[in-house]
Design brief:
The chain is of the alpha/beta class. Helix content is 29%, strand content 23%. The protein is built from 10 helices and 11 strands. The structure holds adenosine-5'-triphosphate (ATP) and nickel (II) ion.
């Protein structure tokens, strides 16, 4: 496997809310994104996925406290890089973003083409608008439409073309399939997966485990700010080691529609919960039978390329 394009080392984000209240949104996230790979970052709403993405792009609000490292191949450390570097060298050029609800990010009064051409120009992109359209499976003639004239699937393709305009090595897609019907979910994630090539990787943030199963080569499962399990997607999804991953799978239609009882803890309570219980999932853990007891250690441990916290394989 190639050298990682992006390596996160203990990336942590806290939001300071005043009066000593803190939201622990991301805790010690350690991940590698390698060329040719599609890494799905999955987990329930509110577990910290989008905050992690915003941290990489330098788009967090002023009350965020960020720790750890996010190293790009070539040496740039994103978390300490000045805004000038992120704006001029990283966003769009090394990391292309496919935003949630793609259509709403397009300017309504201009054609898709004029927006794509402008983006290509601003990023000194190597491909022209028609070539980018072809690459994402869009008829170049559709670029001459206004956003309201594009179907949901076309708008997704335009968004992906915009993300690819600066020929980035990393495509970061935050919930690219929200609000789409199943066939369109499939088309969108397939298209994303196709952009992962020998020199490019995709980081796909989603709570849609079925979409992740369809295209991800690697998966990282987040719960209450922490990555609790990570590894090759096929292995993790066929035989999860963490009871939370198992719980997510059981909640899928083909897993029997059995949602995990209870709710994730409030992110303001995580410090206390970890002091008391060791692991943030323990309060819901006993509800998943058939797993060895929790060690109470929230650290993600590497077992030969598969990573799991608190629940080592037996
Ligand atoms: N500026 C902020 N100040 C305080 N808390 C914040 C701020 N931004 C986000 N949060 C909190 O951080 C937590 C993680 O949010 P995040 O958006 O990363 O979740 P997510 O996993 O992406 O969920 P979803 O699937 O709903 O997008 C949430 O509890 C959210 O309320
Ligand atoms: Ni546990």
């Amino acid at each position: 496997m190639g050298e990682p394009l992006l390596e996160l080392e203990r990336l942590s984000v806290r939001f300071l809310l005043g009066r000593q209240a803190e939201v622990r949104a991301v805790t010690d996230a350690t991940l590698q994104l390698r060329p040719g790979r599609v890494l799905a970052l999955v987990g329930e709403s509110g577990c910290g996925k989008s905050v992690l993405a915003s941290a990489l792009l330098g788009l967090l609000p002023g009350n965020a406290e960020v720790r750890g490292k996010a190293l790009l191949r070539g040496g740039t450390e994103l978390l300490s890089a000045p805004e000038q570097v992120l704006a001029g060298q990283v966003r769009g050029r090394v990391i292309g973003l496919v935003p949630q609800s793609a259509g709403t990010h397009l300017t309504p009064v201009r054609t898709a083409r004029s927006q794509l051409v402008e983006t290509i120009r601003a990023l000194d992109g190597p491909a022209d608008a028609d070539a980018l359209a072809e690459r994402v499976g869009l008829d170049p003639a559709a670029l001459d439409r206004y956003p309201h004239e594009l179907s949901g699937g076309m708008a997704q393709r335009v968004a992906l073309a915009l993300a690819l305009a600066g020929n980035p090595q990393i495509v970061l897609a935050d919930e690219p399939t929200t609000g789409l019907d199943r066939p369109l979910v499939h088309r969108t994630v397939d298209l994303l997966a196709e952009t992962a090539t020998e020199d490019r990787a995709v980081l796909m943030i989603t709570h849609d485990l079925a979409a992740a199963r369809r295209v991800a080569t690697d998966i990282a499962v987040m719960y209450a700010s922490r990555v609790v399990e990570a590894g090759p997607a096929a292995e993790v999804l066929a035989e999860p080691w963490h009871p939370y991953t198992a719980g997510l799978l059981a909640a899928l239609p083909d897993g029997g529609f059995r949602p995990i009882p209870g709710h994730p803890p409030a992110l303001t309570e995580l410090d206390r919960i970890e002091r008391e219980w060791g692991c943030v999932f323990c309060q819901r853990c006993p509800d998943v039978p058939g797993f060895p007891p929790c060690t109470g250690d929230p650290e993600l441990i590497d077992h030969g390329g598969r990573w799991v916290a608190a629940h080592p394989p037996c």
